[in-house]
Amino acid sequence: MAEPAVAINNVSKRFRVYHQRAGTLKQSLIDRRHSRFEEFWAVRDVNLEVAEGESIGIIGENGSGKSTLLKCVAGILVQDNGTITVRGRLASLLEVGAGFHPDFTGRENIYLNGAILGLPRRYITSILDTIVEFAELQQFIDNPVKTYSSGMFTRLGFAIAVNLDPDILLVDEVLAVGDEAFQRRCMERINALRAEGRTLIFVSHAMDSVRAVCDRCLWIEHGVVRDLGEVNAVTSAYVADVNRREEVEMGVSESSTIDDSPGRMGVRLTGVELSGPDGPTSVLNTGDPVSVSIAYEAPAPLLGARFTISFLRSDGAPILSVPTDDGETGLGALPRQGEVRLRLPGLPFLEGVYLITVDVTEITTGQHYKRLERVRRFRVHSAEHREVGMALLGHTWELPHVGAPAAGR
Amino acid sequence: MASTELLPERGLQKRPRAPHAGPIAGRLELLFELVRRDVKQRYRGSVLGVAWTLLNPLIFMLVYSLVFGKFLRVQYPGGSATVFILSGLLAWTFFSQALVMATNSIVANAALVRKVAFPWMLLTVSSVIAALVNYAISLLLLIPFMLLSHKGVGPPILAAPFLVLVTFALALGFGLMLAAGNVYLRDLTYLVNLGTLIWFYITPIIYPFTLVQSKFSGHGLEGELAHIVLYINPMTWVVLGFQDVLVFDRWPQHWHGLGYSFVFSMASIWLGLWVFRRLRRRFAEEV
Fold first, then answer.
1. CA of B272, closest CA in chain A: separation in Å?
2. Number of residue pairs across A and B with CB atoms under 8 Å?
3. Nearest by CB to B112, which of A53, A98, A119?
4. Which of A231, A283, B198, B208 makes the best surface tag, with the fewest CB within 10 Å?
């Protein structure tokens, strides 16, 4: 096997957390005996080999050590233990426009930033027009950078960075800034580099970006490697883990109490339960089979009662109300005690937080027996879906094919 | 298959690679850009611009020559108080300005150091070079005063580059130590300001070296101390050298002292490099 482009062996990095903002002489003289800081391991015993031309994603929560690891590879931080071997020209894109001087013009900053990133001056001169055009700053290039909007600033920084042309590119959350068009250009550029067989290490919170550009994925948790493997497997495991923890935070429906006091005619609702494919939950994925069940009690059999389950957006806007009706319960009687259940074969909602409201009404008069407003709250994840918005509607695309007779020609 | 035609195949697309400067050439180019930035930064946005570089030492020189030459009646050898003071003062201004700028060179570029890996030492080197550029400009000030006092320059002026080199090396050596130390201990910014002020007075710039020699000879412990301080100060011999060349138009007289200053300056560079390399490991996290 060929030698890896980047080899990370048992790398650990320790950080100091100062008790107080130290760094003045007085404190360091007075506090000689007490240690002014505690140390913690931001990265611990990480091993990773990145083959030439491979693209690796690094994921994990905030503060898990992803960026620290990347900075060690970049040479900005020096690890306390272990070795990092890099074969090839390396460029890191941890922040676009780092080191821009506000008083200097865009043009001056192109030269300065280019030199800092390692581009020869003559080469910068030859591509200056391309950079300016890419950044869409033709009219402003001789104005001081401090007069730029943040968008212009970012565009200029990226326009310089895309010309770096390294063997190994380190990218850290750069895509998180800038507008959609900018992000798309970043991704295009990254994919172009990949297509040329360059090596990529990509730190991101955006799972779909990671899936789009990476072959393998490293999952770091509290500074240690939690998982390393094929990108879809690792990102899915990560998403599942985040959901699980969120579930605990939001409180699973079983545990939370509801108002079960009797309403009109003594009708009581004793339980409202939301279930996903694995039982009661409050975190679901788009497309999951879902059921909502309502347990009720009444002093006498219920005649002509209608149950309605409403789904609302987190801001209270109604999305869908589903009443029981003739077809289901009809005007017939329901036993004194029981459970009604609504099943959705595939949850159509996309990413977001949603609420459930439950009503029981008399079918002819519309009078309320009981109403439980916003009785349940649940989160939907749609990491697997490309669609954006509130709900998923059935759809198909039809596209023209190469080689097929083109219509209208 | 239609779809495969659209996918770029890895490694097949050959685009001309962007050239990267080699390690040495790249560093020189970067250093050049950083110096350009540091110099521009100083002169941009100020109305008088370059004039300040001349005005500052000019005013100090006038004040010193008035107070010491006229009021206190200090006898300056060579006849001209202005040229005498100016020859040392300009070199000193270069030295102290380089120290102050170098001390802040890493801290002032914190945003860059945290995010980009490049030889950070160049930030410090460029700040000292920028001070050298200012010094070169400030030398213009000598011309009118030398003409006024009918001073000419002969071959001894050829010793001046060596004197500048020693000053530069001293500033760079101390600057590297201070720049790296300042990342961890911000008090250094203030200490350097205070330190250069004291150092200024223990260097024979506004008083003649011979005055101290004659005043303190045979004054016991106090005199001994004054002598020792003056003798171990490497800037003493550099300033005396400048006075020899510019005031007396002669080759520097204190070759032993100057040799000592040269060795001292080289040692300070060596120590500065050593300290800087040791401390830079945690720059990005501490800055």
1. 20
2. 114
3. A98
4. B198
With respect to residue B132, please indicate whether it lies within any of the assigned structural domains: yes
* A151: exposed, middle or buried (Cβ count in 10 Å: 0-12, 13-18, 19+): middle
- List, in sequence order, the alpha helices (H) in A99-230: 106-117, 121-134, 150-161, 180-195, 207-213
Residue B113 sits in which domain range?
49-69+76-286
- Asked whether residue B82 is assigned to any structural domain, the reply reads yes
Alpha carbon A198 to its chain's center: 25
| Residue to substitute from A69, A108, A116, interface B, most B β-carbons within 10 A | A116
The reply to whether residue B29 touches residue A71, judged by beta carbons under 8 angstroms, is no
| Nearest chain B alpha carbon to A109 | B37
| Range 148-177 of A in CB contact (< 8 A) with B | 163-165
Q: What is the mean pLDDT of residues A171-185?
A: 72
**B251 vs B236: CA distance, rounded Å:** 16
Burial per residue of B123-140, b for 16 or more beta-carbon CB atoms within 10 angstroms, e otherwise: bbbbbbbbbbbbbeebbe
Helix (H, G, I), strand (E, B) or coil at A92: strand
* Phi, psi angle pair for B142, to nearest 5°: -65, -35
Whether residue B101 is contained in a domain is answered as: yes
A51: chain B residues, CB-CB within 8 Å = none
Kindly state whether A77 is in contact with chain B, defined as any CB-CB distance less than 8 angstroms.
yes
Q: In the structure encoding, which two tokens stand for residue B210, read together?
A: 């011979």
Going from the N-terminus, what domains does chain A have, and what CATH number goes with each? 6-245 (3.40.50.300), 264-381 (2.70.50.60)
DSSP state of A391: B
In a domain, B27, yes or no: no
Please provide the average confidence, as pLDDT, over all residues in chain B. Answer: 88
Q: How many domains does chain B have?
A: 1
Contacts of B114 in chain A (CB under 8 A): 76, 98
pLDDT category at A27 given cuts 50, 70, 90 is low
What's the rounded mean pLDDT across residues B173-183?
Answer: 97
